[in-house]
Every structure is written in C-alpha cells, then in structure tokens.
Amino acid sequence: MxxxxxxxxxxxxxPLRDYRNIVMGxxxxxxxxxxxxxxxxxxxxxxxxxAPLNDQAVFAVNGARLAFTTDSFVVKPIFFPGGNIxxxxxxxxxxxxxxxxxxxxxxxxxxILEEGFSLDxxxxxxxxxxxxxxxxxxxxxxxxxxxxEEGHGDGVYINTAGIGLxxxxxxxxxxxxxxxxxxxxxxxxGLHGIAILSQREGLKFDSEIVSDCAPLYxxxxxxxxxxxxxxxxxxxTRGGMASTLNEIAEAARVGIEIEERxxxxxxxxxxxxxxxxxxxxxxxNEGKLVAFxxxxxxxxxxxxxxxxxxxxxxxxxxxxxxxxxxxxIARTSIGGTRVVDMMVGEQxxxxx
Amino acid sequence: MxxxxxxxxxxxxxPLRDYRNIVMGxxxxxxxxxxxxxxxxxxxxxxxxxAPLNDQAVFAVNGARLAFTTDSFVVKPIFFPGGNIxxxxxxxxxxxxxxxxxxxxxxxxxxILEEGFSLDxxxxxxxxxxxxxxxxxxxxxxxxxxxxEEGHGDGVYINTAGIGLxxxxxxxxxxxxxxxxxxxxxxxxGLHGIAILSQREGLKFDSEIVSDCAPLYxxxxxxxxxxxxxxxxxxxTRGGMASTLNEIAEAARVGIEIEERxxxxxxxxxxxxxxxxxxxxxxxNEGKLVAFxxxxxxxxxxxxxxxxxxxxxxxxxxxxxxxxxxxxIARTSIGGTRVVDMMVGEQxxxxx
Lengths: 352, 352
Fold this sequence. Notes:
homodimer; alpha+beta; CATH 3.30.1330.10; Phosphoribosyl-aminoimidazole Synthetase, Chain A, domain 2; 5-stranded mixed sheet; 14 strands; 23% strand
C-alpha cells in the first residue's frame, strides 16, 4: 500500500498518452478514460476494492455483502426520445448494482444546477427520477443540491450513488470470465447513443429511434434463478459493446470471439451509423447487458432471458477462448475476422 | 405514499418563493434551498428516510444499521488556504456520516471535469482526496469520471457519497433535540467561509485565515465514549450556525437560546465579517460541530471534547427551551435579544 509519505511526492503520472490537459475523450469510457483510472486514480486510491475495475465495489459490512457504485450524468440534451437525465440517472446506477447480482436498495441524488435553469424542467426531471426509482424498487434515501453560475454548468448534472445487497453464493465480476464461457447479449445495441445523437443533431429517420434506458435488475434476478454461477455481467454503456468486451478480456486475461451476424442491430441504428460513420459496437446502450456463463448453462439462461420483456431479443453472440488473452476478435458477416479494439477517444461526447 | 399516477400529474410546485428559475440562493443552504427540498424533492421522493431532513439517511440492511449520504462539491477557487476541493469532498461527506454517530467506512468519488483542466491540478486534488480518505479511515471504493466542454464546468466538480455503520444504541437526529438540552459548539466559527472569500476576493489580513476543513468522526467517537445519549449532531456548513440551529429548532419543534458571547469567533474572522458586512453566524464551517446533549451530561461531554485536538475551544453556547418552538433567539453581548433567522438566499456562493 502506498504510504502517506509516498502520496506527498506523487506527481502527475504523465505520459497519460501525452495529454497535459483534460480532453473530452477522458470521459468517453475508452482508452483515455482507462488511462486516468489505471495511472492516476487506482494508484492513489490503492485498495483491493478498486483493483478489479468493476463498475461497482462489493464489500461486507456486519456480514451483509453490499454493492456500492456512483455515476454522474451530464447527458446532452437533458430530454431525449425515451427518457431524460432523471430516469437515466437512476437506471444507470441501479444497473451498475445489478451487474454484480445485487438487489438495488437505495440511491442518492445530488444535483448541480446552473443558475437560470427552469424550475419546470427541474420538476420534469425529478418526476422522472422518482418514477424510475419506484420502477426499479429503490428508495431515494439522501440528496444534495448545489447551484453554479450561468456558464459553469449546463442546466442540470445529476450524480447518483447506489447501495445494493449481493445474495449469498453470487460472485460476479469482470475478472471471472473463463475460457469456454458463452457470451450472451440481452438485445439490440446502439439505441441510446443514436437516440441522443439524433436529438442533438436534429437527424430524422423513418421511425423515431428511442433510447433503451431501462432498469435491468429484474432481468438479472430471473437469470440468477436459473443459476448463481454467472461469471460476468456488464451493461455496455459509454464506449459500447467493444469497450465492455475489451475490459472483460483484459480483466480476466482471456480472449473473446464474437460473431458480428449474431448481434442484433436495429435497421435504423445501422442506417444512422452508416450515415455518421459510426460503428454500432462502440455506441452506448442504457438497457442492455452482456452475460458470461458456463457453456452448459447458456441455453437455459438464454431461454429465461428471452421470456423477459427486456431480454426478448437475447442471443448468444460469442465465446471466451484461452487464445489471444486481452483481445476481442469479431468474425465479420462476410466470413473474415477483425480485431475489435477499445475505443481510444470519444465517439459521442456526453452520452450519459 | 404518492402513487405513480399522482407523479404523472405533478407540476412545478410554485410558488417556490416566486422564482421560476434557479438562482444562486437555491444552493445556499438557507430558506431557498429548504423550499426546494420541502416542496419539490421531499414530496416526490416521498419516503420515511428523507422525512427527518437530516444530512444522512440511516437504514438497516441485513441487520447492519447503515448511514448513507451524498454531497457535490463546487467550491471556487478549487485551492484555498487550508485545503482544496479534494480533501473538502472527503471531509464533507465523512462529517455528514459522523453526525449520525456512524463510523465512516467507504466513500465514492465522482469527478465532472471541464475540458482543458490541467492534469497536474487533477493530480494535486486527487492526492489530497486520497490523503483525506486515509486520515478519515475510509476507503475510496468506487468512482466515475465525466468530461464536459469548456464553458460548461469550472475545472472540476466532485461528488462523494459515503457509507457508515451506526453503532447499537446510538440514535442521533435533528428531531431529537429536547427542552433542557445543552448546546455545545466544538470550536471557533467562520474560518472556512472567510478563507474561501479572502482567496476569491484577494483580501489580506494580519495573518492568513485558514479553512478549518477536517474530519470530525474521531471527535464524535470520543464523545460517544462519554454517552450514547447524544440527541443531535450537526456540522454547520453552508448557511452557517444560524441555518443549522434553525433547522434543528424546526425539526424538533423546540426553541433554542444561544449566548452570542459564548461563541468563539477568531479576531480576523470578526474583522473580515465587519468589513464585508457579514454575520459570522451565517458563515460556513467545515470542521466544527454542534451537539445537543442532556444538560446533566453536558460538562462531561464538553471536557472530553476539549481534550481532543479538534475540540479544544469547545464551549456550551446555549440551551433548548420549550418556548417559541422553531425559533432561535440570541442573547447579544450587550444584553439584548434578537431573533436569529435562517438565511434566505446566498451569502457566499460556491463555498463547498
């Protein structure tokens, strides 16, 4: 453990890919975000809870195994097809709890308001936040409000932290993926990111693309009824499926192979991505999960997922291999293979 | 409990003192902040945890009594005499836990960074945050980083949430103050607010005024060794002593009488306040607490506090009365009395 004395002499751990100042990509969930965590935060906050680099910490307090997580939401625009920053702030955090198998219990809600933000909009956002909390079965237990001058915020930013209870015998983490595991995706990708982007850029499609923002705990609870032996769960938000799979490959020191054809991409999302030069594998989702389960359990878990409203389009999209640890390889629809790298910078800033 | 249907028809609860938009005072910790909580957040998040309007929620999970709190920090400037936003973010949150008598265990750290913020400053802030966490005996268990464009932030904002464990037999809350209780203040007031203000405005005094930013749990633990029958603890941050005492008077439906002469105000703070037209009772502190204890225990608790480095100047500054419930009355140094009202707007914006 780093001593306090070592902290005194800690200097900026450059090269953090040679940036001296923060750029948008440091918040993008890709390589630059990773560098900050691995070279700055993790060494300074040095503790075994942060080491697994999961989206939540799990620890025991008086015998209760708790999951604890935090996320700030700076999505732009605040209101978008399928939701707003209020329900996003609840779902994002309860999903991070659910990805450890925890039952979400309590969330906090801390607002940073910009001077001049309308009370009507604050009310709309807060109504959505309250409704999302009830839908997810959590209580908003504590909160905070700060106000910053005009030009130092953007209407409203919301931080939520969450506490959940991890059931006995459940031990889910990015590092637990094992060769042989099946990789199951709960549904179509790209909806949240493209919904935000089309709203922001005024793009029109045949039908409106709506964010998939939803609480995933209930789906996870169903999956845990099939087996407690789920190795890894992740919701591919910022950085999309590509970054999520790379994080898991790295944490578990395994290779991952996916079949591009097996990944459900809605027609409109595919069209939008083609038009905008985006790869759907890098686009954010807010109501999807990937699960790594032992292959012999895969079809039972898949079936259970498909019987849930949030898992109807669930599909096995790949498998874990012992080869090329740390790498994600996609078999393309025309039969070739390509390396799916982690996103480097920022594809869509302020997506959540 | 408000039904989901009622939520649908919830509209902006104006008049929130007749503002249609957010003003700086909504973040000041005074009446406007209170209005937001009481007329907007509390009805929407309707639950028994929020009802006592403490700075933390206390609930049981699998038999463990947990305290849970959150605070966002937007202090300006980020670096000030006696600390920076990093240690402030830890101390503010561990103190909110300590004010329930809880042992602080875990904190989260969520950064909202502005594009262009220097990595050197981020490192300095994070080193301070890490050191403060070690000093307070808590682990930084989980975190988040978001980046917003230049002109939509102010260098760095930090949210911390915290989890603590409340010992058996401890039941501390604003509503528990009782007529007859002695009101004990742990030390001199006004230091944090005036330190920030002098830094911001470039004011010079005979000696530098330094923020009192410090973790108070150890002091509370000492006090709890004397008795578990402490009724109320609060750290008078935003809104100062005046707002804190008014909140307690209102929550417990009691009157509070204080002796102005008994309240330690450092000479430089008094001089600065006179010059700036401020009342020290409304200036923020970040390392002080007020305790409400049964009068027969007051001298034992006081003595214990005075033997602690953070309580050396502790003093009994008043008492709780059954008369004028909800009101705070000060006996002035020249023998008169005055009503000490809650702050209405914002005395010093972005103080924490």
